[in-house]
Amino acid sequence: MRQIKIIVEKHSDGYVAYPLGIQGVVVGEGDTYEDALKDVRSAIQFHIETFGESVLESESTVLEAFVAEANV
After folding, report:
1. Long-range contacts of 4-11 (CB under 8 A, 24+ apart)
2. Record's SUPFAM superfamilies (predicted)?
3. Residue 59, pLDDT score
């Protein structure tokens, strides 16, 4: 079992979740936070089954994730 950090965003029409430290694009969504997490977990498992364990970085370089704002 491997621990993967997941970002969950709340939008006006639901939630979007995506993992950090995985090669390729993996996204989950749902009407609730829990639904989005469940969906992204399923998507991660499918991604690993489809492309193999090599999609996981051997050592995740993500120690923490932060949200910041910038004026552009």
Report:
1. 4/44, 4/56, 4/60, 5/60, 5/62, 5/65, 6/37, 6/40, 7/65, 8/33, 8/36, 8/37
2. TTHA1013/TTHA0281-like
3. 64
Q: Which among 32, 34, 25 has a CA at the least distance from the CA of 11?
A: 32
Res. 57: pLDDT tops 80: no
Asked if 11 contacts 30 with a C-beta cutoff of 8 angstroms, the reply is no
- In the prediction, which pLDDT does 60 show? 61
Whole-angstrom distance, CA of residue 36 vs CA of residue 54: 24
| Alpha-helical segments (H) within the chain | 33-51
Q: pTM here? A: 0.83
